[in-house]
Design a protein that fits this description.
six-stranded mixed beta sheet, elongated, about 400 residues, alpha/beta
């Protein structure tokens, strides 16, 4: 097993949340430089566009109808009601129709080409017909319900800017101009490596002292939801050799590795034991939950090590990893807002506490206690309540900052 890189000392007083976040951002900043790949339009949702895309043609491509109705000359319907002879029907997708005869009308469908000679469309609801003629009840002026070429975008105009995280609305515009593939940045690739002799996969019967491994699948889901490609989700027993082998395999495939468990002050802290001898920085952050944290570089790949309690793992991801990963993916920042507490709270002095809460109108209610094992209760939360280290007690009605989960 080989190591590499130092992230700083592994001992010392508890760091602040902001200080540790700054170290995480510094460690992950090089991941902003990634390869560009051409990807089929069907697979670009959520990907970050690598270059500006300019329209290769006008939209609309041709002059077409904005309504189901009748294409006419505005001069023919300047006085209404008026009855005009029908000269034919133009459906969407048809081309090569004869021009509109003077004083006549052609039935057109939405999106159908406007016949030469027509300069407006009368909606069908303003007409009635016997099949041979159409009576126009309301006149229209030239240009009404006619979509001119390029009114949406002109050929050569900027369609979508580089750096955009592509959503359905961007894809709709890009597909409309006929682009089959797009240049996008390769996603950040992440591996998840959980640790602990007590953790078991779903579907097996639990023995004494065993629990199900929720952190692996939860971290993978959180990474995927924030624009990251998960390349592996593995588990290691509390065995240094096994952990080292699995970590080597993870760093061979990933840009960043996330571990959970093995970072505290117990007797079997395999992550800390292995990585601290290779330059990893392990210590306490002044927060609850999620105090024990680790940062390392292994085989030139950054490794973020979170504590193993399920809530600690997820809160650590929300506070330290999610902001920078969203920035790398081109996604908007995590939304925050100030709301009123519906319940009184207490918080330990000197530690920044992140309580689970649920929005209630313009306020927020607590959904569980501060315990880092209360993972089921977290399913009912939609925000984290962010309490500063100097706060020890707040009454109901106090204004607090929350961040959306």
């Amino acid at each position: 097993m080989s190591g590499g890189g130092r992230t700083g000392p592994s001992t010392g007083p508890a760091r602040s949340v902001d200080e540790h976040l700054g170290r995480v951002e510094e460690l992950l900043r090089p991941l902003a430089i990634r390869d560009v790949e051409d990807v089929a339009m069907a697979d670009v949702l959520g990907r970050r566009l690598a270059r500006d895309v300019h329209a290769p043609l006008d939209l609309p491509v041709f002059r077409n109808s904005g309504m189901d109705g009748y294409a006419v000359r505005a001069a023919s319907v300047s006085v209404t009601p008026v009855t005009l002879p029908l000269a034919g029907v133009v459906a969407a997708g048809q081309a090569g129709r004869a021009p509109l005869p003077p004083g006549g009308a052609m039935k057109v469908m939405t999106g159908a080409p406007i016949p030469a000679g027509a300069d407006c469309v009368v909606p069908v609801e303003d007409t009635h017909t016997d099949g041979r003629t159409v009576t126009i009840e309301r006149g229209r002026k030239a240009g009404d319900f006619v979509r001119e070429p390029g009114v949406d975008v002109r050929s050569g105009e900027l369609l979508v800017s580089a750096g955009t995280a592509l959503g359905p609305r961007h894809i709709a515009a890009l597909a409309a101009v006929g682009l089959p593939r797009l240049p996008v940045f390769r996603r950040v690739r992440a591996a998840v490596l959980t640790t602990g002799d007590e953790l078991m996969p779903a579907g097996v019967s639990l023995g004494p002292g065993q629990i199900y491994n929720s952190n692996g699948i939860a971290l993978a889901a959180a990474l995927t939801a924030n624009g990251v490609e998960v390349v592996s989700v593995e588990h290691s027993r509390d065995d240094p050799a096994e952990f080292g082998d699995r970590l080597s395999a993870a760093t061979a495939r990933a840009d960043v590795v996330f571990t959970s468990g093995g970072v505290s002050k117990g007797d079997f802290e395999v992550v800390k034991d292995v990585l601290s001898t290779r330059g990893g920085a392990f210590g306490s952050v002044a927060m609850q939950p999620g105090g024990p944290q680790g940062l390392s570089v292994f085989d030139d790949v950054p490794v973020l090590s979170f504590p193993g309690n399920p809530v600690s793992t997820m809160v650590s991801f929300e506070v330290f990893a999610r902001p920078v990963l969203r920035e790398l993916a081109g996604l908007p920042p995590v939304p925050t807002r100030d709301v009123a507490l519906r319940d009184p709270v207490r918080s330990p002095a000197g530690r920044r506490q992140f309580l689970r809460g649920r929005l209630d109108g313009d306020g927020v209610r607590l959904v569980s206690g501060p315990g880092s094992h209360l993972v089921a209760a977290m399913a009912h939360a939609d925000v984290l309540i962010d309490l500063a280290p100097e706060i020890t007690e707040l009454a109901a009605g106090s204004i607090v900052r929350v961040r959306e989960l």
